[in-house]
Amino acid sequence: MSAVAPEVPLLPVPSRRAGWLLWVFLVAVAAAVGAGLRQRFPRPDLDGAVRQLADGDLDGAERARMLARLRELGESDARPFASWAAGLAALSLGDLDGFRAAFQRVGGVPPTQGPEPGEVEFLHLGDPLLGNVQAALQAEQRGDRELARRKWQQVQVQARMTGQALAFDSAGAALERLH
Q: Cβ contacts of residue 47 below 8 Å, gap of 6+?
């Protein structure tokens, strides 16, 4: 008997085309992951951020991220609408300094400059409390003290129920100012 070793089959050498196909596949996977991340962590402009918040689809951490983005974008935008949006976002985040700074750019609280009539539709940012703050500030700006008092009282009740201390304190200060 001869001791001949069995032949081991050689693995086929991949063709150059197989390497190219692997790169195409990897690029497609990276594009899909990138598109998913872009959808999960969007970076819209100020108007887009306002619309995304107003539609009410963002919750929890996503909403907080978008509010923070809106607050930051409002700092560099000269429009009164941007200051109002940034101020309301800061109020929602409990950021007193951001709230004051944003509204200081439009005359303080109550503001002397308001957003254009076509810009107020989405300023509630998807939050009824912020919608009432917006309505109260606009009423004060127009000199409608009765409506402003009613709206600030609603804000105070909503803020107490939701635990938003800055909104509660702001409503209290506004009610004192209006008496």
A: none
User: Distance (Å, rounded) from C-alpha 122 to C-alpha 82?
Assistant: 12
Which residue carries 């032949």 as its tokens? 7
Query: How many Å apart are CA 151 and CA 145, to the nearest integer?
Result: 10
User: How many residues are given for the chain?
Assistant: 179
Look up residue 149 and give its two tokens: 């008092």
Q: Which domains, and CATH codes, for the chain? A: 46-178 (1.25.40)
- Say what angle helices 80-93 and 96-104 make with each other, to 10 degrees: 170
Please give the helix or strand (H or E) that residue 31 lies within, else none: helix 16-40
pTM here is 0.77
Q: Mean of the pLDDT values across residues 89-110?
A: 95
